[in-house]
Amino acid sequence: MQQIIYFFIRNKNFLLFFVLFLISVFLTINSHSYHKNQYVNSANFISGGVFSVKSSITDYFDLKDQNQKLTEENRLLRLHLQNIEETIPALDSIQPVNDSVFSIVGAKVINNSYSKTKNQLTINKGSADDVVIDMGVISSEGVVGIVSHTSKNFASVQSILNSNSQVAAKFKKSNHFGTMIWDGKNPNVVQLKEIPRVANVALGDTIVTDGRSTIFPEGVMIGTVKDFVIEDVGDYYNISIDLFTDMTSLKHVYLIARKDAKEIKELEKEATHVEQ
Amino acid sequence: MWNNEILINTARFLVLILLQVVLLDHINFLGYVNPYLYIYFILLYPLTGNKSLLILLSFLLGLSVDMFNNSGGIHAGASVFIAWIRPLVLKYSFGVSYEYNTVKINTASFSQQLVFIVSMVFIHHLILFSLEIFNTSQILFILKSTLFSGIFTTIIIFCTLYLFGKRSL
C-alpha cells in the first residue's frame, strides 16, 4: 500500500500531466464529432462579452465598406420589389403573410476566423432572440455557416470554412445536387462533391443551396465553378467553387430557420423507421 | 517578494489570454500564420515554482484560449505538454544549475535563451497543429504550419522578453 502511495507521490507531475492531456485530447476529438456535443465553446458570457467589447472598437475600421455592402443589398432588394410590383400590380391589396415558412433574424459577427482548418464565428444574438441550433446563416452575398451553439445573448456558428461542414448544394441551371465541403486551404474556394458524371458542368456555372437539407432555403447563392475534374474512381465530378461571400470581412449576417423544419425532420425519421 | 511574484504571474496570465484572443488570433499573416504568444506565461513561470501548479495553470491557460477559439482542447493539450516537459528542456538548455536559482531566463546568454525558447515553441506548435488538423495524410501541412507559426511566435516572444523582461514582466 505504502509502495503505491509512494509511486503516486513520486510521479504526481506525470500523472497530472497525463490526465489533463487525456482530457484535452478527449475535448479535441469531441469537437470533431457532431457539433452539439462540444462542451467548451465561445457562446458564453465571458467570451461573448470580450468579443462584444472588441467588436465595438474594431467595427469603426471597416464601416465604409460595410455600409457600401448594405446599400448595394438594399438596391438589389428594391430592384426585386419593383419587378414584382410590375408583374403583380395589385400588390397593395395582398396582406403580408404572417405564417410564412421562414423566420429571419439579423445579427452582427463579433468574432470571425478563417485561417484555421476548423473555423467558427461568434455572433451577437442568442436564444433570447429566438436563435436556435441548426439555423442557417447567410450574408447579403451568400452562405456563411450553420449555428452550432447558443447561449442567452450569443451564438457560435460553424463556418462553411470548417472541414467538418457539409452543405447540400446544387447547380442553378440543372438541379444536379451534391455536397459542399472545404479542404482547409483557401478561404475563398470550397469543393463540391458527388455531382454525377451525367451532369453538364462548365466553368462559371452558378452553384446555389439545395432545399433538401431544411437548414438553408433553396437557392441561396454559394459561388461559381472555378475548376473541375472527374474523379479517378467512381463517376463523380470533383469541383472547386469560387465563393461569392468574402469570408474574411463578414459583419452583418442573417439567420434563417424553416419553421416547419421539425415537422419535416420527424416525417423523414418516421419514414426511415418504417423502411427498417 | 513572494506576493509580488503571484501578482505578476496572475496579471501575465490574464493579459496574455486577452492579447491572444483579441489581437494575435486575427493577424493571419500570409493568410494563415498566427503567433501564439500566450505560452510566454509557461516560459517565464518561476524556475523554482511548484511544477504541479504550472501544469494545472497551463491547462487552464490553454483551455481559455480554446474556449474563445471553439477549438476543443488543442491549446490545452499542447500547453500541458510543454509545462510537463519544461524541467527537462530547462536542464538541457541552461545546464543543471538552473535548479539552484542561479540562472534567470531574462538575463541568461542569448544562445541559451534561443535554445530554450525555440525548443519550447516548436514542441508546443507541433502538438497544437497535429491536434488541430488531426489527419496523418496532411503531415506536410502540419509541419509547414508549425514552421511558419513557430518562427513568428519565437520572434514575438523575443521582442516581449526584451521589451518587458528587464522589469520581470
From TrEMBL, chain A:
Pfam families: MreC (PF04085). This is Cell shape-determining protein MreC. Belongs to the MreC family. The keyword Cell cycle does not apply. One of its GO terms (cellular component) is plasma membrane. The keyword Membrane does not apply. Involved in formation and maintenance of cell shape. InterPro entries: MreC (IPR007221), MreC_beta-barrel_core (IPR055342). It comes from Halomarinibacterium sedimenti. NCBIfam families: mreC, PRK13922.9-3. Residues 109-256 form the Rod shape-determining protein MreC beta-barrel core domain.
UniProtKB/TrEMBL annotation, chain B:
The chain crosses the membrane at residues 6-24, 36-61, 73-94, 114-134, 140-164. Keywords: Membrane, Transmembrane, Transmembrane helix. This is Rod shape-determining protein MreD. It comes from Halomarinibacterium sedimenti.
